[in-house]
Structures are given as C-alpha cells and as structure tokens.
C-alpha cells in the first residue's frame, strides 16, 4: 500500500508544479487531461471564469483497437468541438502525467484536429 500512496503523492506534486505555470483564459483555455487505467478524459477550461467550455472522453468515441488509438480519437473529438466553439489556441495541461503514450496521442489528435498549442 505504501507504493501506491507514494505514486499518488509524486503525481500530485508533478501536477501542482505544472499547474503553477499554466493558466487558461477564455481566448486560450487550458486543455486538461485526466488519464485513468481504462479511459482518458479531456476538457477545455477557462480558469478566469472557472467553467468547462468543451469536454470529451474515450467513452464517447466507441471501440478502438487500443487505448492509444482511443486517446487519439478523443483529441480529435475535443479539437472538433473546440473549433465549433470558436477556440483555436489552447494551453496543454498534461495533469502530472508524462508526455508519453496516451497523453501524447491525445495531444497529437488535438493538433491534427486544428488546435494550436
């Protein structure tokens, strides 16, 4: 049990370190990523108002070959919804996760969907 608590503590510290530097506005919202063991969630957040502008998750994209492929589709979906809402630029918040695997795939999908980081 000690190992699990240590991993959570270290991830929360990384997350706080990233969040100190990143701030989303209505013009350039924060693309926040949450990664669970099975699903991945992304949302565009206006930190000034404290509102979520656009959201998407892997439960919406249906069956995919792998979790990495589902993450890429989530990135494309959130980008499509953002462009419809008139958002073109975002600040990427990896949520304390490494920029690797599913998190990187989501970012690539968002870029291919038309978002600029």
Give the topology, please.
Blueprint: H1 2-21, E1 30-35, E2 40-46, E3 51-57, H2 67-84, E4 91-93, H3 102-112
Helix pairs in contact: 2-3
Q: Can you offer a commentary on this structure?
A:
There is one protein chain. The protein has 117 residues and is of the alpha+beta class. It is built from 3 helices and 4 strands. A hairpin with a 4-residue loop joins strand 1 and strand 2. Helix 2 (67-84) runs parallel beside helix 3 (102-112). The radius of gyration is 14 Å and the shape is globular.
How would you summarize this macromolecular structure in one to three sentences?
42% of the residues lie in helices and 20% in strands.
CATH topology: Nucleotidyltransferase, domain 5
Structural class: alpha+beta
Give a short account of the largest sheet. 4 strands, mixed
Low-confidence stretches: none
Query: How many strands in all?
Result: 4
From the coordinates shown, what is the CATH architecture?
2-Layer Sandwich
| Helix amount | 40-55%
What is the overall number of helices? Answer: 3
Q: What is the percentage of strand-forming residues?
A: 15-25%
Highest CATH level, the class: Alpha Beta
Biggest sheet, spatial arrangement of strands: 3-2-1-4
Cα shape: globular
Number of domains: 1
Average of per-residue pLDDT values: 94
Report, as a whole number of angstroms, the end-to-end distance: 38 Å
From N to C, what is the helix and strand string?
HEEEHEH
What Rg, in angstroms, do the CA atoms define?
Answer: 14 Å
């Amino acid at each position: 049990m000690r190992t699990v608590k240590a991993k959570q503590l270290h991830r929360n510290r990384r997350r706080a370190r990233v969040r100190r530097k990143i701030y989303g506005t209505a013009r350039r919202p924060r693309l926040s990523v949450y990664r669970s063991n099975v699903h991945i969630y992304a949302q565009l957040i206006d930190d000034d108002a404290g509102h979520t502008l656009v959201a998407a998750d892997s439960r919406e994209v249906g069956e995919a070959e792998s979790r990495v492929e589902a993450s890429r589709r989530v990135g494309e979906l959130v980008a499509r919804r953002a462009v419809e809402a008139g958002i073109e630029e975002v600040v990427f918040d990896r949520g304390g996760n490494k920029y690797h695997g599913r998190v990187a795939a989501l970012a690539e999908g968002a870029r291919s969907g038309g978002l600029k980081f």
